Automatic annotation (TrEMBL):
The chain crosses the membrane at residues 21-41. It comes from Novosphingobium sediminicola. Keywords: Membrane, Transmembrane, Transmembrane helix. This is Heavy-metal-associated domain-containing protein. The keyword Transmembrane helix applies. The keyword Transmembrane applies.
Length: 439
């Protein structure tokens, strides 16, 4: 029996794992492969990647490519007519690249290549549609490409999502939207487009559901597979009015793992045969939206996708921030409750009677008395307060059924207070500054 891991590796499914993950051991790859086969079966899994799905993109270069240059030139013979036509194309392309005024000889020295889309050669006439490629380094010396061509973006993975008939697709089938992106000559754009060919495991890795993912770990693994720094999602939705009738297209330029919309527009096609031209026009407008965003500084790679210097993804960062805010609120509430408890304790201490302090010329005397009940406490306080010269008297310790203590401020000594209390019918014993009284 064929090893499931080897079977998937032969079909390119090993690309399902991030590059670093695969490098850490074949065991993990084998487990994932075996699990995938066990879950859906090898026949069904392979059916999702086999067949004619992808469209290989045209070769991308760093040259400044200017397309759709049409010329109609004449000459003494066919060769001279073609030479005149190409020179005319050089000048038109140089103007389209926003280059300064130069003679045709200098412009010709900057040309890196010519791609013929269509040409008609007669004895004395030459008509053609050409793509002129300028060497970016040499053209940059003259300031060509100031319209956004000279400065290029970071590598951006393109996921062209097409929704037609209510079904979203990328590489599941060969779609006209994928086709125009594959045939687009990216050298003329300020955006460094990274285009997958859609074959092999690409249809599994990149599908219509991928833009809905938010996991930075998944995105980092995917972008690392294609050597990209961020992702662009040109989304197209086609609505047919009736079979064979007009087709309305809705287009949205999105970017980033959070699927942020940069701009949208609508186009119309008279019938299905005009759809490819409409999609090509939509691609040009998409490229302009992305170029404008790059010029305004909006098309910067998401820092949370950086492998070298990764930052925390927004969802997790917001959860941590919310947790820290909750902890701070709980700490503030606990501090407030503690302060309230301390204030209540201070109020309780302030409400307790304060023993009188001695005044100049007087004495603070301690008086013990029997207190079998509350009435005895009141009687003892009344007797002491009734003595002439007592400024203040208050209990400091009450023991019902035992001996209570009071403290009195008296303008005299302990013997004078004892004599006054004896006259009031109390039995008094004196020991220094302390008195003991009873009935």
């Amino acid at each position: 029996m064929t090893n499931p891991a080897n079977l998937l590796a032969q079909r390119g499914l090993i690309a399902l794992l991030p590059r670093g993950f695969v490098a850490r051991g074949a065991l993990a790859a084998g487990l994932l492969a075996a699990g995938a086969v066990a879950f859906v079966g090898p026949d069904r899994l392979l059916a999702q990647i086999e067949g004619e799905r992808g469209i290989a993109p045209v070769v991308a270069s760093n040259d400044i490519e200017i397309g759709n240059i049409e010329v109609d030139a004449t000459g003494k013979n066919a060769q001279e007519a073609k030479l005149n036509g190409w020179r005319e194309a050089y000048k038109k392309a140089w103007e389209a690249a926003h280059g300064p005024a130069l003679d045709v000889g200098t412009i010709e020295s900057i040309v890196a290549g010519v791609v013929v889309d269509r040409e008609e050669i007669g004895p004395h006439r030459y008509r053609a549609k050409l793509v002129i490629a300028f060497d970016r380094a040499r053209a940059g010396q003259y300031g060509a490409g100031n319209g956004g061509v000279a400065v290029r973006s970071a590598p951006m993975l393109v996921i062209p999502v097409l929704t037609s008939g209510g079904v979203g697709q990328v590489f599941e089938v060969r779609s006209p939207w994928q086709k125009v992106w594959a045939e687009y000559r990216t050298g003329a754009s300020a955006i460094d487009y990274v285009r997958a060919n859609g074959g092999g495991a690409d249809s599994l890795l990149i599908n219509a559901g991928q833009p809905g993912r938010r996991s930075r770990v998944w995105w980092r693994g995917l972008l690392d597979q294609f050597g990209a720094s961020d992702v662009l999602i040109p989304a197209a939705r086609l609505e047919r009015q009736w079979p064979g009738g007009p087709v309305k297209g809705f287009f949205t330029a999105r970017y980033g793992p959070d699927n942020i919309a940069l701009g949208s527009f609508e186009l119309n096609a008279s019938d299905d045969s005009a759809v490819p031209a409409m999609l090509a026009q939509a691609l040009a407008r998409m490229d302009q939206i992305y170029t404008d965003a790059l010029t305004r500084g909006l098309l910067r790679p998401d820092p949370t996708l950086s492998v070298d210097h990764p930052t925390m993804e927004p969802g997790l960062a917001s959860l941590i921030a919310a947790g820290r805010a909750a902890e701070a609120a709980a700490a503030a509430q606990a501090a407030a409750e503690h302060a309230a408890d301390e204030a209540a304790a201070a109020e309780a201490v302030a409400a307790q009677p304060v023993a009188p302090q001695p005044k100049p010329g007087g004495a603070a005397l301690t008086i013990q008395f029997a207190s079998p009940d509350a009435r005895a406490v009141d009687q003892a306080l009344a007797a002491v307060r009734g003595v002439a010269g007592v400024d203040n008297a208050a209990t400091t310790s009450i023991a019902i059924g035992g001996t209570s203590v009071m403290r009195a401020q008296f303008n005299g000594n302990a013997d004078a207070l004892a004599a006054a209390l004896r006259k009031a019918g109390w039995q008094v014993s004196v020991a220094g500054a302390a008195l003991r009284i009873r009935r």
